[in-house]
Amino acid sequence: MTYLDLIIDLFKNTPRQGPGSTAESLQALALMDLPNEALTIADIGCGSGNATLTLAQNTQSKITAVDLFPEFLDQLKINADKVGLIDQIKTLEASMDQLPFEKNTFDVIWSEGAIYNIGFKKGTKQWRKFLKPKGYLAVSEITWTTNDRPKELNDFWNEAYPEIDTAANKIKVLEENGYRLVGYFYLKPESWIKNYYEPLALEFDAFLQKHDHSEDAKAIVKEQREEIELYKNYQDYYSYGFYVAQKIIKTPSSN
Ligand SMILES: C[S@@+](CC[C@H](N)C(=O)[O-])C[C@H]1O[C@@H](n2cnc3c(N)ncnc32)[C@H](O)[C@@H]1O
């Protein structure tokens, strides 16, 4: 198994693949003034579909759930089937920087904890054309919650994801690229610890055993443990910011 296969194997059975909560998905949804009719939604980087199912349950919508890895999409289909929501959801194996959608397709583009894979700037710019005019973008993205922070933390995240920034700067990116901000909040600590890190840590022993304590498996668990420790020590300085923005029409020639 490659390193990537191992990572997928560790994460595919966890309830979610990144921090978040149903309450916060609903909080973001509540910021949108959506027409009371069947909506078209894309959930990009959906993983095993925690947010996809919340959206299906709470809107009359057809959702296209996109992920690069079929293992997550298979799990999403199992989860959706269990709760009777499979008819609302179509899965699509695709990379988020090469999406096969037509312009002006979606009322809502949703993406929790995933846009970092291509970068916030590139993702928000590229996806805009797929939104209908006045369509909504809802993305959660790692965000500094203060202006200053300890060097160890700053170095870690700047190495892992150089686009990490404050909400003010993320909002500026949205405003410079054809969106108006509708609302912003950041995820609560329990959305990291209870909903994400604790269920993930419960998998570590079985994962190591399943993969015979291979060097790669041990390295993956070590990396995850370090990330958990970092969050526990420095949670006052960063979180996932949830950004809800609306597509505005820039100029007659814009898409
Ligand atoms: C941190 S997880 C978040 C998953 C889910 N949205 C959640 O909140 O539980 C990031 C997701 O992005 C997916 N991903 C990574 N690179 C991708 C790409 N280039 N295109 C589409 N999905 C990608 C991963 O497979 C993973 O499911």
Secondary structure: elements and pairs:
Elements: H1 3-11, H2 22-30, E1 39-44, H3 50-58, E2 61-67, H4 70-82, E3 89-93, E4 106-112, H5 120-128, E5 131-144, H6 151-160, E6 165-166, H7 167-176, E7 179-186, H8 189-210, H9 215-234, E8 238-247
Protein name: Methyltransferase type 11
Keywords: Methyltransferase, Transferase
Domain Methyltransferase type: 43-138
Verbal overview:
The chain is an alpha/beta fold. It has a domain at 16-146 and 161-187 and 238-247: 3-Layer(aba) Sandwich (Rossmann fold), CATH 3.40.50. Helix content is 44%, strand content 23%. It has 9 helices and 8 strands. It has helices spanning 3-11, 22-30, 50-58, 70-82, 120-128, 151-160, 167-176, 189-210, 215-234, and strands at residues 39-44, 61-67, 89-93, 106-112, 131-144, 165-166, 179-186, 238-247. Strands 1, 2, 3, 4, 5, 6, 7 and 8 form an 8-stranded mixed beta sheet that branches. Helix 5 (120-128) links the parallel strand 4 (106-112) and strand 5. Helix 2 crosses helix 3 and helix 8 (189-210) packs antiparallel against helix 9 (215-234). The longest helix has 22 residues, at 189-210. It starts with a helix and ends in an 8-residue tail after the last strand. S-adenosylmethionine (SAM) binds at residues 16-18, 20, 45-47, 50-51, 66-69, 72, 95-96, 112-114, 117.
